[in-house]
């Protein structure tokens, strides 16, 4: 019998990026690169292999322009001009993979320097473009950013479907550009199954993380930037028995929670359930939008087939958009809409995602359509179902609703995504519809969510299809391998600061991880657990993650002990089945592989990590340092 | 006091007394943990009856009582179920339910 415990203690990516930045700034100071012979740093912030930084100094203030030359012709060039300066740190974004890229730095006086920047091949798990139909004129210098729904990576595709941006960190859920030009998305640091990461990260497109906003209830699915820069973020309270039913307002500077909304205050939890509802994940909030005109928050609840509006100040329920079947009559009378207009083509949405409030107050969303009924007897099989983007016009005085646009119904199961996805409103008649959760088994829409399907299994295909239409004409369609949570079209550069120097910040706080007050009887042995258990401990600045493999039904407990204290964390080895799996990033192939996160918040000192497996308490040889 | 019982024995116990009935499975990690929690509680409240029943071997009874999974704790008083807890719980949550019926 062999025994083994693996352990790694790694600085937070923010600290590693700061160290990298200090190193290239030192090289800049030492080497004194010139315009003619600039310093080039490929992947300066460690997580974007398709970018570089060009550094040099000039004697007078000049405004340089960076051009990443297209592979084929100059119409494919990506250019950006930077403000005048003497010290230049120019982000080079949109490099081609595994290619010697020609990058031209030019000055207003006509001088230019051409440099070659060679990139390597991308990781194997990258999802490739399979088909793309659009034009360089339509997409321009925009890139279609797709965020992963599994172990794939956040990826940006150009008008030819070439990958021009990639993060090697599995950041998750929504991705949005905020007013200062940065992007905000979910962190990749695991906290709680099935897909809760520590919080949100704000970064530039080089991959430099300026801030991580940690949340005690973690972050999931979606966020929204308010006019003052503060953030609405979806979260939960892990100390209670339900999830995905809270929203908070975060202070953008401090990460402090300024306000919170609890949907349990305004909605019954046991009515109007969708096919995926259970008591634990009764609402499954997957989208948030703030509507300034009505000072309200609009929220999508997949597991009640409903989009709701609540008052920003009071949290009171304004209305519910969805099929009223199964709701108490008094709530139907007060909060639900009655369809009007072309009723022959009207459909309610089911298990929807990504609600959007249009400028005129219309509500758009991605209607996944999973089950497409309230009553079990009327559930529609996936292979006979459809997904679509849909726009509803609502009259909150008359409580009437009219369906005024849809796209996707006509494509049937080929466009069907039982989970994830989004829509975007660009202008009247100009929309994006992203069906990112398509899964086929032997040519038919699978009955399983994509996150549970293995692309390597014969007959299994995962697809993501992103469409843009204008006035009813499809001008863009991208089909990729894999499933992608959301799509967001953005230019690589923006008019603000594309790079700011300095150390990133870790804001907010994680939860105090719940301890178990009873210790089972177990004989302490001076041995490590067997190698088969595959015990691995990853320590980070503010938490650690324990990984192990255990037979179902084993009694397992992680203990942190020192002379004065003992902290116990129960590890559940029972099978847990989730009816929603919007990101499979944390799923393990072997369902006996289990991981738990323990926050260091509330702990102080140095602790020996020990492991109870059934009737024995094993050593791990690992000390956890909690400052 | 913790007593393991079968369906037949369940039918013979005094149903008017306040009591806790727990359904467990030998194949369940949380159930194993809960057995230690209940032992601790029983040490502090030795007179309070706790009956444990094997879920897999007493299927008729678990269906009769509407027990869908394990571990499940049912709290009875005056012959009627007053509350139930599903899944592994810590001592304070269980003691709260016991105090409500004792």
Provide structural commentary:
The complex is a heterodimer of chains A (627) and B (102). Chain A is mainly beta. Chain A folds into three domains: 121 residues, Immunoglobulin-like (Sandwich), CATH 2.60.40; 87 residues, Arylsulphate sulphotransferase monomer, N-terminal domain (Immunoglobulin-like, Sandwich), CATH 2.60.40; 380 residues, Neuraminidase. Helices cover 5% and strands 44% of the residues of chain A. Chain A has three helices and 45 strands. In chain A, the strands form ten sheets. In chain A, strands 9, 31, 32, 33, 34 and 35 form a six-stranded antiparallel sheet that branches. In chain A, strands 13, 14, 15, 16, 17 and 37 form a six-stranded mixed sheet that branches. In chain A, a hairpin with a 3-residue loop joins β15 and β16. The longest helix of chain A has 19 residues. Chain B has 102 residues and is an alpha/beta fold. Chain B has one domain: Glutaredoxin, CATH 3.40.30. In chain B, 38% of the residues lie in helices and 26% in strands. In chain B, strands 1-3-2-4-5 form a five-stranded mixed sheet, with helices on one face. The two termini of chain B are 14 Å apart. In chain B, 31% of the residues are buried. Chain B: Belongs to the thioredoxin family. Chain B: Keywords: Disulfide bond, Electron transport, Redox-active center, Transport. Chain B: Pfam families: Thioredoxin (PF00085).
- Radius of gyration of chain B (Å): 12 Å
As a percent range, the share of helical residues of chain B equals 25-40%
Q: Determine the oligomeric state from the structure.
A: heterodimer
Mean model confidence by pLDDT of chain A: 96
Low-confidence stretches of chain A: none
* Low-confidence residue ranges of chain B: none
How many domains of chain B, as an integer? 1
Task: Kindly report the average pLDDT value of chain B.
Answer: 94
């Amino acid at each position: 019998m062999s025994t083994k415990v693996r352990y790694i203690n790694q600085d937070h990516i923010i600290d590693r990026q700061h160290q990298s930045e200090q190193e290239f700034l030192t090289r800049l100071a030492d080497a004194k690169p010139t315009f003619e012979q600039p310093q080039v740093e490929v992947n300066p912030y460690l997580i974007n292999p398709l970018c570089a930084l060009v550094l040099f100094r000039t004697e007078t203030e000049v405004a340089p322009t960076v051009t990443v030359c297209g592979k084929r012709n100059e119409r494919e060039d990506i250019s950006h001009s930077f403000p005048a300066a003497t010290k230049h740190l120019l982000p080079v974004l949109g490099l081609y993979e595994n290619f010697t890229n020609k990058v031209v730095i030019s000055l207003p006086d006509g001088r230019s320097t051409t440099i070659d920047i060679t990139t390597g091949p991308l990781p194997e798990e990258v999802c490739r473009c399979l088909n793309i139909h659009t034009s360089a004129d339509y997409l321009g210098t925009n890139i279609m950013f797709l965020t992963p729904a599994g172990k794939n990576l956040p990826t940006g595709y150009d008008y030819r479907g070439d990958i021009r941006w990639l993060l090697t960190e599995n950041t998750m859920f929504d991705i949005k550009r905020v007013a200062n030009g940065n992007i905000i998305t979910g962190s990749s640091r695991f906290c709680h199954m099935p897909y809760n990461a520590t919080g949100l990260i704000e970064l530039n497109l080089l991959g430099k993380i300026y801030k991580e906003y940690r949340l005690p209830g973690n972050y999931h699915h979606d966020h929204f930037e308010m006019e003052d820069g503060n953030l609405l973020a979806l979260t939960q309270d892990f100390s209670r028995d339900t999830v995905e039913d809270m929203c908070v307002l975060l202070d953008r500077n401090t990460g402090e929670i300024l306000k919170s909304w609890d949907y349990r205050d305004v909605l019954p939890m046991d009515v109007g359930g969708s096919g995926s509802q259970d008591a634990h994940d009764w609402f499954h909030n997957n989208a948030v939008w703030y509507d300034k005109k009505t000072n309200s928050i609009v929220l999508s609840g997949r597991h009640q087939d409903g989009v709701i509006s609540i008052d920003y100040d009071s949290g009171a329920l304004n209305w519910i958009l969805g099929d009223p079947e199964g709701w108490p009559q008094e709530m139907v009378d007060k909060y639900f809409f009655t369809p009007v207009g072309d009723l022959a083509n009207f459909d309610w949405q089911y298990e929807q995602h990504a609600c959007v409030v249009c400028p005129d107050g219309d509500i758009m969303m991605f209607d996944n359509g999973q089950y497409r009924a309230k009553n079990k007897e009327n559930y529609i099989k996936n292979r006979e179902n459809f997904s679509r983007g849909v726009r509803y016009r609502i009259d909150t005085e008359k409580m009437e609703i009219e369906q005024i646009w849809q796209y996707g119904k006509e494509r049937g199961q080929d466009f069907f995504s039982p989970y994830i996805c989004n829509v975007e409103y660009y202008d009247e008649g100009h929309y994006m519809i992203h069906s990112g959760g398509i899964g086929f088994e032997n040519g038919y829409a699978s009955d399983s969510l994509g996150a549970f399907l293995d692309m390597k299994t014969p007959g299994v295909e995962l697809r993501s299809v992103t469409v843009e239409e204008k006035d009813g004409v499809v001008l863009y369609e991208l089909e990729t391998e894999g499933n992608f949570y959301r799509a967001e079209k953005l230019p690589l550069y923006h008019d603000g600061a594309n790079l700011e120097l300095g150390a990133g910040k870790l804001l907010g706080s994680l939860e105090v991880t719940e301890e178990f007050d009873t210790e089972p009887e177990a004989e302490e042995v001076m041995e490590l657990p067997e190698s088969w258990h595959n015990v691995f401990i990853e320590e980070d600045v503010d938490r650690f993650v324990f990984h192990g493999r255990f037979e179902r039904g084993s009694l397992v407990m992680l203990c942190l002990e020192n002379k004065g204290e003992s902290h116990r964390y129960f590890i559940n080895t029972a099978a847990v089945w989730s009816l929603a799996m919007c990101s499979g990033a944390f799923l393990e192939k072997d369902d006996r592989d289990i991981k738990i996160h323990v926050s260091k918040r509330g702990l102080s000192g140095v602790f020996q990590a020990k492991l109870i497996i059934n009737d024995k308490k094993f050593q791990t040889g690992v000390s956890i340092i909690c400052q | 006091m913790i007593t393991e019982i079968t369906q037949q024995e369940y039918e013979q116990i005094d149903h008017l007394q306040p009591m806790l009935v727990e359904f467990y499975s030998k194949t369940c990690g949380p159930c194993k943990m809960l057995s230690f929690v209940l032992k601790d509680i029983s040490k502090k409240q030795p007179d309070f009856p706790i009956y444990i029943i094997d879920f897999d071997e007493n299927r008729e009874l678990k269906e009769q009582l509407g027990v869908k999974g394990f571990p499940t704790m049912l709290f009875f008083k005056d012959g009627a179920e007053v509350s139930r807890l599903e899944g592994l719980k810590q001592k304070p949550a269980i003691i709260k339910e016991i105090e409500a019926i004792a």
